[in-house]
Amino acid sequence: MENKRIKYNPITKERDLDVLIEEIGDARVVMLGEASHGTSEYYTWRAAISRRLVEEKGFSFISVEGDWPECYAVNRLVKGYRDSGSKIADVLQVYRRWPTWMWANWEVAALIEWMRENNHLRTGNNKVGFYGLDVYSLWESLDQILNYLERNDGQTADAARNAINCFEPFNRDPQNYARATAFVPTDCEKEVIEMLQRISKQPTFTDDPENDFNTKQNALVAVNAEKYYRAMIRGGADSWNVRDSHMMETLDRLLEFHGPESKAIVWEHNTHIGDASATDMADDGMYNIGQLAREKYGRENVKLVGFGTYQGSVIAGKSWGAPMQKMEVPPAAKGSWEEMLHSLSTDDKIILSKDLKEIPELQRRIGHRAIGVVYDAKFEQYGNYVPTVIPERYDAFLYFDETEAVHPLHMKNKGSNKEPDLYPWNR
């Protein structure tokens, strides 16, 4: 393929995003991806895009690939709730579940600082929120439900106690629960569904609508987390689909809660926001939030923006639960999407999918790099490239030729006590 046929716009400063903001237009949902969970440029440029969407197009909230309870604590901080904390770095320590670096990092701290300052100028329902879409927080959500109901609705609290008692034998370990239900025909599905039904029947608990929403959302998380962990032990596509269906249901609920004029920004990995029907994920019966959002709201109302790099460094672990470490990301594989963009030029760039429609070679699946929280560059060619029809998977793509690792709050910078420079357009 003649790479010169790929049109692009160089990106070095924040106003270079104008072409992307114009492409987003009047979309109600904008999903911003990442090719890894540990790359600084993905966070900083998503923050820059999000700021412009909030300021120029009136977006209502940012929702991320994070757990609901932890992100709700951050939401309370950025909205200035009483007793929500004052030091951003301290509040971000709420992210204790591995991989902690995903949201407890300096790049996110900079975003949260901007959100809090921006919200100081807003009142009531006009404040911009920060929420988690993920499904992992079974025990944390149950704890929050019980604590809230014991203060506000003693009768409904009984249903929460029944659910917690059912899970108690598994020592707060979802893996233990999943393994147990695989071999014994008993589970806690009935208890969490009954709890959700009891909570959902209550129109309000207090005069704080968002805190009521928080309780009901935690109940939904408990129901879907129980379903997710049972599906996970069976293998196959079911657990993935349960997880992304939950994310989509949560996004729908947030849009409904914020009103008919609300608009949503989503931060998740490319494998979630990039339309799965344009990848080999579809061959295994998998779908994702990007695909579901397009199907529900229409492609004109949903804009999917992918991110990627040719080489650099990343924060990841060698295995699940392993210590985080800074790792090298080698040059992208020959023939991959990232290698094509590198051979086109070493510019950081924005590519619009509408400019790729007339290139026949891109109407087929090609390798597109994806790095997870577990990574080993030695095995990259065997499992880190997702066959993708790029123009169908995304509406736009941000490419960075060389990137650096994200800056975790839990990892000290050698030789410096200063916070890192988080704005690449200022370097």
From TrEMBL:
It comes from the Bacteria. Coiled coil: none annotated. Transmembrane segments: none annotated. This is Erythromycin esterase family protein. It comes from Pontibacter silvestris.
